[in-house]
Amino acid sequence: MLRDGRLTSVALVDAYLRRIEARDGAYRAFYVVDREGALAAAEEADAAFAEGVDISHLHGIPVGIKDLIDVSGLATTANAPGRKGAVAEKDAEVVRRLRDAGAIVIGKLATYEWGTVGPDNRGAFPPARNPWSIEHITGGSSSGSAVAVAGGLLRTTLGTDTGGSLRGPAFYCGVVGLKPTFDLVPRSGVLPMSDSMDHVGPMSASVAEAAATLDIIADFPPGVSASEKLGRPISGMRIGYARNWFARDSQTSPAVLSAMDTAISTLSQLGAIIEEVELPDYYSIEVAAAAILHKESFDYHAQSLRDRPDDFGRRAFLSLAAGLTVTEDELAKARGAGELFRAEVDKLLLSHDALITAGALTTALLAAPFEKEAVWTPMRTIGFNVSGHPVLAMPIGFDNGLPMGMQIVGKHWDEATIVQIGDAFERATDHALQRPPALT
């Protein structure tokens, strides 16, 4: 519509701004909305279109940025008490690339403090709320990014993922999260949590939009893109179904198990060759990954935790300080376990185009218990932060009105194949077309 003149970017941005104003009081996805900056950028996009200039798929399209990522002129708060005035002097590299592609940054989106634990009403900002049920959690620190998409406030956003923070909110909010191969997307200008496990990627309303967003921010070689196989059939592709990671776990809800089996059946009907495979024990890699995450995040924050403890909320302080107990020997063993896990996944991918497993073992939990203390949420995500494999998270159905999701895991640097599989599944189902209930 932008390209054939039926719509202007100014009208599009204005429509989203009005929708944000109407809905975000309930959803709380945004920390700040840059109304003037967005409308000025939209005017520039319209002028470019009028001159026949068309930069990219996202030219003239509004996007939102998780508040761990620098946007020039706006505070990068990390939802931390000590960072409310931390105004960024320049854009993070990923934001620069979005702007160069003509995308319009409309605001900063909610996060758990420093990407640690939440939701927490005692944070610098109130936590974002799940559009499918504001009584339930969003599922991770890229909360605002998922809520903005699920709530119809944007079509695509940027988030980060250190233990599952792109994927957890995708599962719980019914959107698409794409964690790229480790270091495919530059992290300059992004506040770190765990240097060897941090990833930056898109959260979007569809697989195609996530792929288009990743194409702009990623360091793909010339001629390579995440979108290159969109629309292609998956007949004959070999998919390993890692059912062992969740099927026998007492935490797995019957609805998730049924939805996963149904999703695999759908892929089989689309012509994929399904083989059940065994991933290494999840709990072992979870313990190792947690040790790495805690040690690296503590090392980054150690001086601030000592000298400026009031800059942190209580939960984030305790979470970050936990890394003090991880010894160098334990860290080395954890890294060794991570290398072994990566090798085992690589071995499975030698004979399979992709692996599929569950993401979260239940639908979103009620938010109320989190106000008393941090509550464990049963995920199957953090291992792939250690191994660095690309993972596509996407919806596979609903249970009592709450979304469920699966993970499609690919070879390093092969985002195109998991996007191809996810796109085929999305086209064959109606999960991505569902919308949350209207606000009352």
From TrEMBL:
Gene3D superfamilies assigned = Amidase signature (AS) domain (3.90.1300.10)
* Function recorded in the entry: Hydrolyzes indole-3-acetamide (IAM) into indole-3-acetic acid (IAA).
**PANTHER family attached here?**
AMIDASE AMID-RELATED, TRANSAMIDASE
Q: Which domain of life is it from?
A: Bacteria
What is the name listed in the Swiss-Prot or TrEMBL entry for this protein?
Indoleacetamide hydrolase
> Which InterPro entries does the protein's record reference?
Amidase (IPR000120), Amidase_CS (IPR020556), Amidase_dom (IPR023631), AS_sf (IPR036928)
Where's the Amidase domain? 12-418
Q: Which SUPFAM superfamilies match?
A: Amidase signature (AS) enzymes
Q: Taxonomically, what lineage is the organism?
A: Bacteria, Pseudomonadati, Pseudomonadota, Alphaproteobacteria, Hyphomicrobiales
Tell me one GO molecular function of this protein: catalytic activity
